[in-house]
Design goal:
Elements: H1 19-40, H2 55-58, H3 72-83
Amino acid sequence: MPVITPAYPSMCSTHNVTRSTLEVITNEFARAADTSERIMKGKLPWSALFVKHDFFLRYKYYLAITAASKSPETQVKWYILVFDA
């Protein structure tokens, strides 16, 4: 999995990912996927995405990823591709 820096010029920093940081990344992806899936299935309200979390206190460095689509139909296709695969 490439890890691209958010600053210009963008570059791959995969060589900086250690086993411990990979575990942190994997755990956060799993937590995000679980929350997203529960929201899409109507088990959680959208406000669950904005619950205060101690992520920025727990980790010195972080990465933000934004995934969006141009239409609701495309968003649903993306959801099905990711969560129902």
